[in-house]
Design brief:
about 70 residues, alpha+beta, three-stranded antiparallel β-sheet, 3 helices, elongated
């Protein structure tokens, strides 16, 4: 199990710091793990699972017929 800090979470997801914390507060993103003091991290596998779920939830692309 690997813990990742906020900078890496932002890079992996493309989300900003404020957006990540807003999603956490809404229960739409994995919660962070307190490391002591003001330091927190996220479980990498939970963030990767969130990314996979977001990909799976996409609307499928419409199918176009060829008019050749």
């Amino acid at each position: 199990m690997r813990l990742i800090r906020l900078k890496e979470v932002c890079e992996m997801t493309g989300l900003s710091r404020s957006c990540i914390y807003k999603y956490v507060d809404a229960g739409k993103f994995p919660r962070n793990v307190p490391l002591g003091g003001r330091a927190v991290a996220w479980v990498e596998s939970e963030v990767l699972e969130w990314i996979q779920d977001a990909i799976a939830a996409r609307e499928p692309l419409p199918r176009y017929e060829s008019y050749i």
